[in-house]
C-alpha cells in the first residue's frame, strides 16, 4: 500500500480530533427546572458528571462513532493506494524490451534492466492471476519480446505457470529497440474478423510495455483502441561512454601498416577522462588517455546530446589476418558499446595472366609467388580473344612481357608492363635509349619495399616524356625507368625496359619487385578490413562447395553446427550479440580446419543513451505504472463511503438516545 498525501491527512487529524475529544470535557450551563418525577434525577446526575472538566472519560458509543468517521475522513485525505491487477478480464499483451540498452546494470534490484523487467512482469502475472480482493478477473495474457525484431514468447493463455516460464526464457540481445513489429504481432493475435462484414470485432487488448522507453520507432506508432501501460525501467542517472565508430586505413607510405580511428561519445553530464586501449588478436598494442566533455540536452526533444571525441592511434605494422579491437578501459553501465572490433582478413589469392612471354624467366618467377592462385599463359592472339569475350576482368593482374596491345584492345584493369610501351595516353614514348643506371627511386612506394636498384644496369630502354598525371617512381640517368598511371579503373605499372636487356634477372631485387608489383596491383582498392555486422542483420558468406562440418562459435561461448543447403550461399541470423564470431569448416583435400572471422558491433547513439523516458507518446491512453510493476487501486472512495455510513449510524444513535 502507498499513501499520496500523508502530511495533509495528519494535519487534518491534528486539527479536528483533539477538539472533538475536548467537547466531551466541557461542562454545560444549566438552568433551574421543576421536574414532575424523581426518576429523572439519576439522568441529570449522569449529565453533570459527564460535563465536569478533567474527569475520566466514560465509554461512549457516540464518541467512538464520531472518532471513527473522522479517522475515515483523514484516511481519504491521505489517499491510500493498493497494488492490484487493474484489469477486468479481456486480453493483455506483455511487451518486454530486450534491446542493448536493457543490458545496462544501473538497477539495484536485479543484475540488468532486462532482469528487472522480467521481475516486474512476473509480479504482474501474480497480480493478474492472484485471485485476491483487488486482483483482476480471469482473462488471457500473451508475452512478446522485441528489440530490432519481435518474437512471441508465449501465446494467449490463462495459465500462470506457462506465463512465468515464458518470461524466464527471454534472453537479452544487442539490437536496437523497435516496437513496430511487436505491435503488429500483438494485433494479429487480438484482432478477430466478422465473417459477414469482414470487419474487426471485439475489444482491443491492453498493452503492458516493460522498457526504458528509448524506442527508435515509437513516435511512428499510433494506438488503435488499445490501452498501454508503460513500466519504466532504469535509473535517471546512468553512466555510459560508448564507441560509436571505428575504421582502419593504410598509410600510403607504409602499405603494410594500419592506422586505426575511433569515435567516442560521452553520455554523462560531467566531463570524463578515460583510457582507450588498442588490441590486436587480444594482445594490447597501445593505450591512449582521452578527455571528453560533458553531454548536453536537446531543449526540444529532451534527449541527451553526447559529447564526442575522436581518437587516432599511431600506425603499426599489420599486413593481414588479425582482429583489431578498440576498448574503453572503464566500467560503466553498458558493456555492449564499450568495445568495437574490425577484422583484417587474410590476403586474397590472385589470378594472374602472363601475355606474350618468350622467356622462362618471367614465368618462373610468377609461378613461385605464393599469393598467386592461378597463373594463366596467354599468347597475343589468345589475349585478344579474351578482350573480345570481355573476359579480361576475370584476372586480378595482367602482365605484358615486352608486348603492347593495339590501342583499343586494353580495357580497364590492372596491368604490369615490361619493355614495349602500352597504348596509354600521357606516356609519350619518343624512341629508344642505351646504357642507363638508376639515380633515384621512391623508396616509400610499395613497389620498392626491400628493393635495391643501385646495382641495376639497363642496356636498352624506351625513352619517355610523361605528362604531369603520370607518376615517376624510378628515375634513371637518361629518363624515367618505372612509372605509374592511375586513372579510375585503369591502373598501370610500366617498366621501360625488358628485364632480359639488363642484369636485373640476376639480382634478388627482381623477384622482390615482381612480388611487390603483383601484390600492389592485385589488392589495389581492396578493403583493408572486412565489413562488420550489426545486431539484427544476417551473417552471410560464401564457403567452398566441398565445405563440411560447418561450425559457428558465438561470442558467449555457444557453438552451433550449421548444415547449409548450399555453402556458396551460407546465411545465419539474425545476429543477436556483439563480439567476434568464428566460422570453422573442413575440406577433404586439407587436413587443417578452415576459419573465417566476423566482427559484430553496436555503434548506436540511441542505445547508448541510457536515461529512461519518464513518459512515452504512443496515443492518448498511455498510463505509467508504479515502480513495483503493478497498477494501483485507490482506496479513498471506500473510506469516504464508510465515513458516510458511520455518520448515518451516529445520527441514528444520537436521536434514539435523545428520544429515550
Fold topology:
Blueprint lengths: L1 E2 L2 H18 L17 H10 L10 H18 L1 E5 L6 E7 L15 H16 L11 E7 L3 E8 L2 H10 L10 H11 L1 E2 L6 E2 L4 E6 L15 E6 L8 E9 L7 E10 L5 E9 L2 E10 L3 E2 L6 E2 L1 E6 L3 E2 L4 E7 L10 E6 L5 E6 L4 H8 L4 E7 L1 H10 L7 E5 L12 E5 L10 E13 L15 E8 L6 E6 L2 E9 L2 E6 L12 H15 L16 E3 L6 E6 L5 E4 L7 E3 L6 E8 L7 E7 L4 H4 L13 E3 L6 E4 L1 H24 L1
Parallel strand pairs: 3-4, 3-8, 8-9, 9-35, 20-21, 20-22, 22-23, 23-28
Antiparallel strand pairs: 1-2, 2-36, 4-5, 6-7, 10-11, 11-16, 11-17, 12-13, 12-18, 14-15, 18-19, 24-25, 24-26, 26-27, 27-28, 29-32, 30-31, 30-33, 33-34
What are the defining features of this structure?
elongated; 6-stranded mixed sheet; alpha+beta; Rossmann fold; 9-stranded mixed sheet; 660 residues; Immunoglobulin-like; 11 helices; 36 strands
Textual characterization of the structure:
Helix content is 22%, strand content 32%. With 660 residues, the chain is an alpha+beta fold. The strands form nine sheets. It has a nine-stranded mixed β-sheet with strand order 21-20-22-23-28-27-26-24-25. It has a six-stranded mixed β-sheet with strand order 5-4-3-8-9-35, with helices on both faces. α1 runs antiparallel to α3 and α4 runs antiparallel to α5.
Amino acid at each position: 500500500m502507498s499513501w499520496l498525501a500523508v502530511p495533509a491527512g495528519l494535519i487534518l487529524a491534528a486539527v479536528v480530533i483533539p477538539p472533538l475529544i475536548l467537547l466531551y470535557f466541557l461542562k454545560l450551563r444549566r438552568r433551574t427546572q421543576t421536574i414532575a418525577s424523581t426518576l429523572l434525577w439519576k439522568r441529570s446526575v449522569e449529565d453533570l458528571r459527564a460535563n465536569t472538566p478533567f474527569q475520566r472519560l466514560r465509554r461512549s458509543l457516540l464518541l467512538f462513532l464520531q472518532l471513527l468517521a473522522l479517522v475515515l475522513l483523514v484516511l481519504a485525505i491521505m489517499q491510500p493506494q493498493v497494488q492490484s491487477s487493474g484489469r477486468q478480464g479481456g486480453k493483455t499483451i506483455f511487451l518486454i524490451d530486450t534491446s542493448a540498452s536493457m543490458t545496462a546494470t544501473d538497477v539495484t534490484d536485479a543484475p540488468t534492466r532486462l532482469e528487472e523487467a522480467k521481475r516486474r512482469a512476473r509480479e504482474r502475472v501474480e497480480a493478474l492471476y492472484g485471485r485476491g480482493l483487488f486482483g483482476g478477473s480471469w482473462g488471457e495474457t500473451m508475452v512478446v519480446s522485441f528489440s530490432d525484431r519481435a518474437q512471441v514468447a508465449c501465446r494467449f493463455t490463462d495459465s500462470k505457470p506457462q506465463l512465468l516460464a515464458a518470461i524466464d526464457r527471454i534472453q537479452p540481445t544487442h539490437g536496437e529497440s523497435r516496437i513496430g513489429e511487436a505491435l503488429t504481432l500483438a494485433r494479429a493475435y487480438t484482432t478477430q474478423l466478422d465473417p459477414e462484414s469482414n470487419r474487426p470485432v471485439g475489444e482491443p487488448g491492453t498493452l503492458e510495455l516493460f522498457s526504458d522507453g528509448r524506442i527508435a520507432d515509437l513516435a511512428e506508432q499510433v494506438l488503435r483502441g488499445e490501452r498501454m501501460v508503460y513500466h519504466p525501467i532504469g535509473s535517471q542517472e546512468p553512466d555510459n561512454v560508448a564507441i560509436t565508430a571505428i575504421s582502419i586505413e593504410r598509410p600510403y607510405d607504409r602499405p603494410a601498416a594500419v592506422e586505426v580511428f575511433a569515435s567516442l561519445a560521452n553520455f554523462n553530464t560531467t566531463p570524463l577522462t578515460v583510457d582507450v586501449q588498442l588490441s590486436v588478436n587480444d594482445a594490447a598494442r597501445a593505450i591512449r588517455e582521452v578527455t571528453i566533455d560533458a553531454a548536453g540536452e536537446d531543449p526540444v526533444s529532451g534527449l541527451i546530446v553526447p559529447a564526442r571525441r575522436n581518437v587516432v592511434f599511431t600506425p603499426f605494422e599489420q599486413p593481414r589476418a588479425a582482429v583489431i579491437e578498440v576498448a574503453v578501459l572503464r566500467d560503466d553501465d553498458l558493456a555492449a558499446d564499450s568495445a568495437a572490433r574490425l577484422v583484417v582478413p587474410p590476403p586474397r589469392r590472385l589470378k594472374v595472366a602472363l601475355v606474350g612471354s618468350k622467356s622462362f624467366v618471367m614465368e618462373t618467377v610468377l609461378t613461385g609467388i605464393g599469393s598467386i592462385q592461378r597463373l594463366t599463359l596467354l599468347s597475343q592472339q589468345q589475349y585478344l580473344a579474351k578482350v573480345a569475350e570481355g573476359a579480361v576482368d576475370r584476372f586480378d593482374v595482367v602482365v605484358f612481357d615486352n608486348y603492347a596491345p593495339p590501342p583499343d584492345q586494353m580495357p580497364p584493369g590492372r596491368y604490369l608492363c615490361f619493355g614495349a610501351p602500352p597504348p596509354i595516353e600521357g606516356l609519350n614514348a619518343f624512341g629508344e635509349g642505351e646504357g642507363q643506371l638508376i639515380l633515384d627511386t621512391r623508396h616509400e612506394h610499395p613497389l620498392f619495399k626491400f628493393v635495391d636498384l643501385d646495382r641495376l644496369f639497363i642496356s636498352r630502354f624506351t625513352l619517355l616524356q610523361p605528362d604531369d598525371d603520370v607518376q615517376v617512381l624510378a628515375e634513371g640517368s637518361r629518363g624515367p625507368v618505372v612509372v605509374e598511371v592511375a586513372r579510375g579503373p585503369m591502373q598501370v605499372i610500366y617498366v621501360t625496359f625488358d628485364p632480359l636487356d639488363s642484369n636485373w634477372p640476376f639480382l634478388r631485387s627482381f623477384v622482390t619487385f615482381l612480388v611487390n608489383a603483383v601484390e600492389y596491383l592485385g589488392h589495389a582498392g581492396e578493403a583493408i578490413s572486412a565489413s562488420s555486422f550489426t545486431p539484427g542483420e544476417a551473417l552471410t558468406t560464401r564457403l567452398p562447395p566441398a565445405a563440411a562440418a560447418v561450425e559457428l562459435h558465438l561470442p558467449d561461448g555457444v557453438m552451433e553446427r550449421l548444415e547449409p543447403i548450399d555453402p556458396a550461399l551460407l546465411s545465419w541470423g539474425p545476429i543477436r550479440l556483439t563480439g567476434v564470431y568464428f566460422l570453422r569448416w573442413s575440406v577433404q583435400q586439407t587436413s587443417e580446419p578452415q576459419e573465417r572471422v566476423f566482427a559484430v558491433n553496436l555503434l548506436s547513439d540511441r542505445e547508448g543513451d541510457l536515461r529512461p523516458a519518464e513518459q512515452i507518446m504512443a496515443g492518448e491512453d498511455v498510463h505509467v505504472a508504479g515502480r513495483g510493476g503493478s497498477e494501483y487501486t485507490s482506496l479513498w472512495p471506500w473510506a469516504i463511503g464508510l465515513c458516510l455510513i458511520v455518520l448515518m449510524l451516529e445520527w441514528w444513535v444520537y436521536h434514539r438516545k435523545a428520544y429515550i
